[in-house]
Amino acid sequence: MDFHTETGRPSLDLIATLGDRGGDGLERLPDTAAATAWFRTVARYPIPEPLSAHDLSVVLGLRNALCRVADTVFAGRVPAAEDIDVVNRYAAIQASPPQLAKDGRTLTSNQGTTLEAALGEIARDAVDLLAGPELEKMKRCASDDCSVLFVDRSRPGKRRWCSMSRCGNQSKKRKYNAKTRELR
């Protein structure tokens, strides 16, 4: 499965698992195997594997609420109270605090060892993004066929695409091909 990993925030990475939100929707977490792969490769939270069907529905419930909240806030509107409640409920889930390992130099933690703790981390990231200073840097991909939200941390603040290697190159290729056709 091809997951977006260049959004700049774990919460936006989870939101990006639902593509083409303006159309029919492209589900990048269609089953428990895909969701497990996302947590292992993108989120990098060590969750118990494999995820169950119930676990998948929990993940999708938070993801869908995050999608609606982020899209609504991005559009300058107030999100639905029930979606905010879902995000806040997960954000309240506390993970184990980090601790020093026996060697006195290594940080250890049980953080993210349960699905709930991982979702709590993701929800807290969304709260931090949507209520914090990086909200001003949140943008939507400029590609006509992409709806991914990302944080633009480029120095000039002029990033246009969710990923240069994905949408940026495709856009430049389309532009080049159109120009080539014009010259013929």
From TrEMBL:
Gene3D superfamilies hit by this protein: Jann2411-like domain (1.10.3300.10)
Superkingdom, natural source: Bacteria
Domain Zinc finger CGNR residues, every copy: 138-179
Entry-linked InterPro entries: ABATE, ABATE_dom_sf, Znf_CGNR
Listed name of the protein: 4-hydroxybenzoyl-CoA reductase
